[in-house]
Specification:
By secondary structure, the chain is mainly alpha-helical. It has 40 helices and 14 strands. The strands form 4 sheets. Strands 1-10-9-6-3-4 form a 6-stranded antiparallel β-sheet, with no helix packed on it. Strands 5-2-7-8 form a 4-stranded antiparallel β-sheet, with no helix packed on it. It has a two-stranded antiparallel ribbon with strand order 11-12. The longest helix has 25 residues. The two termini are 84 Å apart. The C terminus is likely disordered.
């Protein structure tokens, strides 16, 4: 038991010669009782009522004579020489205070010991051998007298070793070393000691390298002294750092294969990393050089490749112990400039070990990393004395002990990786990823894709929540580098798979810029397509884009992503794949469109996937209809999602692909359109999930039913405009002699990109046609780089419709010269079937006029002398008859079904079965089915009587009840002439005021107001970028506050009133403003007459004003009329 024994006199014998002026106070209610020889008796006595009570401040010298009667310090002893047991000690506040009332000097003592021994110099004077005083204390002519000084000793409770009831364990030994901490260190002395040890150690290391056994033993002792010195002087570790790190580096260089010496050096290194603040790394060039050198040597140990497995594992564990010390040290993070160099050294052995371990083993160990105790070998290495080590020895082989296994090594490397990425910020994660890539490059391990993907997944999972996005972002940036590489190497495919693995995992990636990543990946995809349409990297890139759908964190985010893809589709459709500022070939254009379609569908499917492990197990469907097939296929991947569905106005920009000049594009887009119609498009009450639209009636309530019907039947509804466009392009596909919107359309290529051979045109070429198409193309300028601008005077959809109308004018519709192949008519049938099954009401109102017009055109063709035209007419009539049968089945109209079935009995049945592609992955283009040679004597099939079918629909009472339109209304709608030009015009017209009631999100006007009252906002880029958006909640709030013109340009009238000085109230279903007292002005401001009209205008646009009925009154009770205050 150690303690200090310093003599004190706070007056330096200048004021008085005794301790009467010394006052003391400390909280100790008991003291150790002793006998006449000052031997502890094993009892603790109470200080109450004795001179031993210093719980209140009192003079020490004043109570010395009072101790005589109690013999507290022994027989015939006067004074204090006792051990007080402290009542309370938190190691932070002074537990003993003594001061001189004469000199004003005070001494406060803080200790980590439980007792205080006070000696009042009772026997310091010896007449035979007196002690002279110091010169500054009046000596040497005078001597130290009894009771003229005091000694204060911080200590453990005396004799506690013989008294267990004291509760203090004073037994120390090899298993429990006694640690004594010096209270202060002299800087010069510490530096000199460290320097002397360094000199001695360098000498010993040189001899140990030569094989001197005695020098090796001395080297071990010197390293042990260094570790003890670093531990005891940890507050001044900076004074020892240069010499300590130099000693470690010298030792590692001299005897790198002596595991016992290396382990001792690693323990010294770990002690330093534990206590240093790292400020010398990067500042002291010599220390930095030695530190990085030592770190590199430990890194080399951690990836040892010795043949002996036991020795190799022991060596690696020693290296990882030292590296783990660095990973938990400020030395790694203090200097950002040195962080990269250290991480590069540390990552290499980690990856070597991980790539040598099976994935299953890594998964098991990774699951136990968080919160699990450290490796038993590393824990023993740090704390257990060498002499006590047995089976768990870190460096010595014990007979019968197998030593550490490879699993222990991989566990240590996993913990090192977990610690490294768990403490890193976004910039540091970038350095870590860069070091990992360099290590994989050096090891040529890119071929090991499973381990690479596992690494990227764990790095993102173990990173801090707010920095996880840095891992996949960095992967995408690396993937997008060197886009012009002629052919992809294993590196590119593996990096793409790594990014996809992270995106497909259930790990939330907050702060992830999905739109920017999608834009970069799409640019890479288009560049690769232009370089080589058969590039094997395309499938991986599509999968990476699709996996972004897993990270939709707000309702409109999926619309931002799909809008980006659809915009690129529009660009490629019009201009082709862009490479170095020039349009690419027709084949690369088709492949680019197909790849983007696959990415688009993949995004939507990924957004609906329940978890990362779910994969579609069915790539082929046995459904009887396209809609049923898609529904069966995605049933396993569907989940309830808070995201909004992709609205028709976004998807509508792709509908022109139905008339693309490449059959492979047309067929893939038809599958995509069927998927959208059946799985994604908002139905808004127009669905037919119960299979009985005719009997649904008003079951959902008269108010809701009326609102939905008014929305569905209005021509300005987004869904209705979308169906107009679909029917117009299907009509053009079936009848037009020119397909495609670019200059390549002059060749009228309806072939597949499976080969580069085109099908001969059936119509003669016009020499002036190229100039006309180029002129039209100049009108159709779509922004190539970046996103489409919302401030253009004419949106891309309107420009595209204008180009199509000019094509229709230059190429009159006619079946004799139509460009569609036989398989196209099967695609038309599949799309129309899905329209009528999924959107029965809107499909009926927009589709029947198109069927009637198409049948009239087919019936007007004189094909008696053209067998090929006869085949085409029969195919069209078969499509029409089959669609009428579908309409009859959807609406449960027996008369219509019987009419269609009777007509189909004599049908030529020429439509081929088109196998559907699974569009979320890139596949080879499909071959088109051409019309076979016409048989001799072929005649025109009469088909179904369309007028009779229309009359059946018009006279069907269940249809009247469901749609809410009378017989005369239906007759008027179906008798109105239909042309593709008018349909395209309707699809591209600006939004009407009614459209602002519902924009396709399935919310009624009343539901739109509720979030505003709760201050809920969900703003996305897509919702802000739309230039023709409807009037919504923000506009109502803006009108009430007098700032509607800023919130929505659709409101024409300027602000006229502010609610800052007015209180709203509802009376008789009308919203009006009543004047209140202003808090900021002395005079009342008269109300503006246009204010109420302003708000009514907004409510009318929302569909809840007087114009459409008092819906507000129905849901919100009237409040009492407010009166002016």
């Amino acid at each position: 038991m150690l303690s200090g024994h310093h003599y004190w006199n706070l007056e330096a014998y200048q004021e008085t010669q005794d301790l009467v002026g010394h006052h003391a106070q400390f909280q100790a209610s008991k003291f150790v009782t002793t006998d006449g020889d000052l031997i502890p008796s094993g009892q603790l006595s109470d200080v109450t009522g004795t001179p031993m009570d210093f719980r209140k401040a009192k003079s020490i010298g004043g109570d010395i004579n009072a101790t005589a009667s109690g013999a507290f310090c022994g027989t015939d002893c006067v004074g204090f020489d006792n051990c007080w047991v402290l009542d309370k000690n938190d190691f932070k506040k002074p537990v003993f205070s003594v001061w001189s009332v004469n000199s004003g000097i005070k001494l406060d003592i803080i200790t980590n010991q439980p007792a205080i021994q006070v000696y009042s110099c009772n026997g310091i004077f010896n007449p035979e051998v007196p002690i002279p005083r110091k010169k500054d204390q009046g000596g040497p002519s005078t001597v130290y007298e009894n009771h003229s000084c005091m000694v204060i000793e911080s200590e453990s409770i005396i004799d506690a070793i013989n008294n267990p009831e004291f509760g203090v364990d004073q037994i120390y030994g090899p298993r429990r070393p006694y640690n004594w901490e010096a209270t202060s260190n002299h800087p010069a002395k510490l530096t000199k000691v460290a320097s002397e040890i360094e000199k001695k150690l360098r000498h010993e290391a040189r001899k140990a390298r030569a094989g001197n056994i005695r020098a090796r033993a001395s080297l071990l002792i010197s390293l042990a002294i260094l570790r003890a010195l670093a531990t005891e002087c940890r507050r001044d570790i900076a004074l020892l750092s240069p010499s300590l790190i130099a000693c470690v580096d010298v030792t590692m260089e001299a005897v790198p294969t002596d595991l016992e010496v290396v382990a001792r050096a690693a323990s010294v290194f770990t002690s330093w990393t534990t206590y240093t603040d790292g400020h010398l790394v990067g500042t002291d060039s010599t220390l930095t050089k030695d530190y990085l050198s030592a770190l590199g040597r430990f890194s080399a140990l951690s990836r040892s490749s010795l043949a002996d497995h036991e020795v190799r594992n022991r060596t690696r564990l020693i290296g990882f112990a030292a590296l783990s010390g660095t990973l938990n040290s400020d030395a790694l993070y203090y200097d950002p400039a040195q962080f990269k160099a250290q991480v590069s050294t540390i990552m290499r052995p980690i990856l070597v070990t991980l790539f040598e371990t099976q994935i299953d083993t890594l998964d098991e160990q990774a699951a136990a990393v968080k919160g699990a105790p450290s490796s038993p070998y590393l824990a023993e290495f740090r704390s257990r004395p060498t002499i006590e080590r047995r089976a768990a020895s870190i460096h010595i082989h014990i007979d019968g002990d197998n030593g550490p296994s490879m699993a222990d090594v991989s566990n240590a490397s996993l913990r090192a990786l977990y610690t490294l990425v768990g403490h890193a910020n976004s910039a540091q994660l970038g350095f870590i990823m860069h070091s990992a890539f360099d290590s994989i490059n050096d090891a040529q391990a890119w071929i090991d894709s499973p381990h690479c993907c596992w690494l990227s997944h764990k790095m993102s999972e173990w990173s801090q929540y707010q920095y996880r996005y840095a891992v996949p972002t960095w992967l995408v940036e690396r993937l997008c580098r060197n886009q012009d590489v002629p052919s992809p190497i294993t590196y590119h495919a593996t990096v793409a798979e790594m990014a996809t693995t992270v995106f497909n995992s259930p790990i939330p990636l907050v702060n992830l810029s999905t739109s920017d990543i999608a834009s970069s990946l799409i640019a890479l995809l288009l560049r690769r397509v232009e370089s080589d349409p058969d590039d094997p990297l395309l499938a991986s890139t599509i999968g990476c884009i699709s996996s972004l759908g897993r990270h939709v964190y707000y309702s409109d985010q999926i619309q931002d992503l799909t809008a980006e893809v659809i915009h690129r589709i529009s660009v490629v459709e019009a201009r082709g794949a862009i490479s170095h500022g020039k349009s690419g070939s027709g084949r690369s254009r088709s492949h680019a469109v197909r790849c983007l379609l696959a990415a688009l569908i993949g995004l939507i499917e990924a957004a609906n996937r329940s978890d990362a492990s779910d994969k579609s197990s069915t790539h082929a469907s046995s459904g009887s209809t396209p809609a049923e097939s898609f529904r069966q296929e995605v049933a396993g991947n569907r989940r309830v999602s808070r995201r909004t569905p992709i609205t028709p106005d976004i998807w509508q920009d792709t509908v022109s692909l139905l008339c693309d000049n490449d059959y492979a594009v047309r067929s893939d887009y038809a599958d995509a359109l069927v998927f959208y119609l059946s799985e994604e498009m908002p139905k808004l009450g127009d669905n037919n999930s119960n299979g009985d639209s005719g009997k649904r009636g008003l079951a959902e309530g008269p108010l809701t039913h009326a609102v939905k019907l008014n929305i569905l039947l209005h021509a300005g509804n987004y869904g209705t405009k979308f169906l107009h466009a679909v029917h117009a392009y299907l009509y053009i596909l079936a009848t037009s002699s020119h397909l495609g919107l670019t200059s390549s359309s002059t060749t009228s290529q309806s072939y597949s990109t499976l080969d580069d051979t085109s099908r001969p045109r059936t119509a003669s070429q016009n020499t002036g046609e190229d100039d006309g198409v180029e002129a039209r193309e100049s009108e159709f300028q779509i922004q190539v780089n970046g996103r489409p601008s919302v401030s253009t005077p004419q949106n891309p959809r309107a420009r595209k419709a204008s180009v199509v109308q000019r094509l229709l004018e230059d190429s009159p519709l006619g079946l004799a010269s139509a460009s569609a192949c036989l398989a196209d008519y099967s695609l038309i049938y599949n799309v129309l079937t899905t329209v009528h099954e999924e959107l029965p009401m809107r499909g009926l109102l927009t589709g029947v006029p198109m069927l009637h017009a198409l049948n009239a055109l087919a019936s007007s063709v004189d094909s008696s002398h053209d067998p090929a035209a006869t085949q085409r007419v029969n195919a069209i009539k078969e499509v029409i008859a089959r669609i009428w049968l579908v309409i009859g089945e959807v609406w449960n109209v027996p008369e219509l079904m019987e009419l269609a079935e009777t007509a189909l009995i004599t049908a030529p049945n020429c439509l081929p079965s088109v196998k559907r592609n699974y569009l979320s992955t890139y596949i080879r283009p499909r071959r088109y089915s051409e019309f076979p040679p016409p048989p001799e004597g072929i005649v025109v099939w009469q088909g179904i009587d369309c007028q009779a079918a229309v009359d059946i629909i018009i006279n069907c009472p269940s249809i009247h009840e469901t749609i809410g339109v009378s017989r005369d209304g239906l007759a008027h709608r179906f008798s109105t002439p239909w042309t593709p030009e008018l349909a395209l015009k309707d699809s591209a017209e600006q939004s009407s005021s009614f459209e602002n009631t519902l924009r396709g999100d399935g919310l009624t006007p009343l539901l739109k107001i509720s979030p505003a009252l709760m201050h809920i906002e969900n703003i996305s880029q897509q919702s802000l970028a739309r230039s023709t958006r409807g009037v919504g909640v923000a506009d109502l709030r803006g009108a009430l506050e007098g700032r509607n013109s800023m919130s929505n340009p659709a409101l024409a009238r300027p602000a006229s009133i502010s609610t800052l000085e007015h209180a709203p109230s509802t009376t008789d279903g009308h919203l009006r403003l009543t004047q209140t007292r202003s808090k900021s002005r002395n005079k009342k401001r008269p109300p503006t007459s246009g204010g109420a009209g302003e708000v009514r205008d907004v409510l009318n646009r929302l569909g809840i004003g007087n114009k459409n009925g008092s819906l507000l009154k129905a849901s919100f009770p009237a409040l009492p009329k407010s009166t002016p205050r």
